[in-house]
Amino acid sequence: MQDNAPTALSVSELNRQARLMLERGFGDCWVEGEVSGLARPASGHCYFTLKDDRAQVRCALFRTRARFAAPFNNGDHIRLRGKVSVFEPRGDYQLIVEAVQPAGQGALLAAFERLKHQLAAEGVFANARPLPCPPRHLAVITSGTGAAVRDVLAVLAARWPMLDVSVLPVPVQGREAVPAIIRAIGLANHLARSQGRFDALLITRGGGSLEDLWAFNDEHLARAIFHSQLPVMSAVGHEVDVTLADFAADVRAPTPSAAAEQLVPDRRELTRRLQDVMQRLARCELARLDSESQRLDHLRARLRHPGERLDQQRQRLDQLEARLKRAMQQRLASARQQHQHLERCLYRFVPAQQVGDARNRLAQVSARLHAALPQRLQHERSRLNALARELNAVSPLAVLGRGYAILENGEGKVIKRAHDTQPGEKLNARLGEGRLTVEVKRRYSRN
């Protein structure tokens, strides 16, 4: 080793000198940007990243200053005052924050809300198709090496190992993520149409900051999910993370593991339920067998030999035959007695004598009828004349014959008062003999 070799700095000395140079060179400065990756450990300090669309810087807000700082969250756009420094143990360039002021909503969240309203107005979030449960063949679009795919496969294997799962690996953040995911959706739909390989699609990734999940807020990806012929479940990030892909999908799950639990039933639960059903079936079968055995014993006790039944029927047949013979004999005896009675009556009433008596009665009745008929006719004529005289006495025609008249208007209505007519009106006058047409010249209110 040469004696004139330059003196080497240790890493800690290098970081210390870099911190001193930055703190002396910049001093306090104001920086504006969007909050991301905010962490608040139990110590009371706040650690977060401040970024814009092209760069980012780590920030530390210690507890003594955090108590007086304006509240802020991920996605907020803030202005902060701080010192540029270096965290020596890791050599990280950072800002030591002294004060925080709100500066409006973050640009990413504002862009998210604009896209959300635009796609909702276009109907991209209208999908609500049910996913088959369980699916026959599931396509999973996610990172091939991330924790999400391991969680999904582990849950699916534990709950429903007979499910066919195909992982379509894609990058889940960065510039290449959106086109790769769209191509994977198209490939899954093509294989489903041409080969019938898939009947459901899961798009998933693990948690991260808003910018880490930003690929799933792309409008082209949302439209690709909306136009997918396969029903789509989206499970992006943690439970509190919501992306446009979640809105465009048919079903959303809060986490990758929860998505796997929603997609398939738990075989262990189904096995337990099946065992319960089998036990209930066995108990029902035993109870049914016991009931049928008791019923069989009861029927066996009631069952008699056919010979006994036939003997009973023969005995009853003999009884019915004896009763029939007695009834026939009684009926014949009664008929003989009636016949003898009719013969005796016939001998007492000779037809010739009966005919002679009937002729005598007929002659008497005929004589009486001829004598009574003229008298009845004379009586009825007298009664008719009396009624005619009474009718003629009350007949309006008889009144007309005494010089009175009946006046009628053109409608045939009888005129009873002078005020029922009008001057110049034509009236019909009915007399005892004939009719007259008269004209009203003047009306009088008194007789």
Tell me briefly what this model is.
One of its GO terms (biological process) is DNA catabolic process. With 447 residues, the protein is of the alpha/beta class.
Could you give the topology of this structure?
Blueprint: H1 11-26, E1 28-39, E2 46-51, E3 56-61, H2 63-66, E4 76-87, E5 92-105, H3 107-122, E6 137-142, H4 147-159, E7 164-169, H5 177-195, E8 200-205, H6 219-227, E9 232-236, H7 244-248, E10 251-252, H8 256-263, H9 267-302, H10 306-348, H11 351-394, H12 396-401, E11 406-408, E12 426-430, E13 435-439
Parallel strand pairs: 3-5, 6-7, 6-8, 8-9, 9-10
Antiparallel strand pairs: 1-2, 1-4, 2-3, 4-5, 11-12, 12-13
Helix pairs in contact: 4-8, 5-6
CATH hierarchy: architecture of the domain at 111-265: 3-Layer(aba) Sandwich
β-strand amount: 15-25%
**Relative helix content:** 40-55%
User: What's the CATH class label of the domain at 111-265?
Assistant: Alpha Beta
**Most strands sheet:** 5 strands, mixed, barrel
Main sheet strand line-up: 1-2-3-5-4
- What is the name of the CATH topology of the domain at 111-265? Rossmann fold
H/E element sequence: HEEEHEEHEHEHEHEHEHHHHHEEE
Q: How many DSSP helices?
A: 12
User: What general form does the structure show?
Assistant: elongated
Q: Name the CATH superfamily assignment of the domain at 111-265.
A: Succinyl-CoA synthetase domains
CA-CA gap between termini: 169 Å
Q: What's the overall average pLDDT, rounded?
A: 85
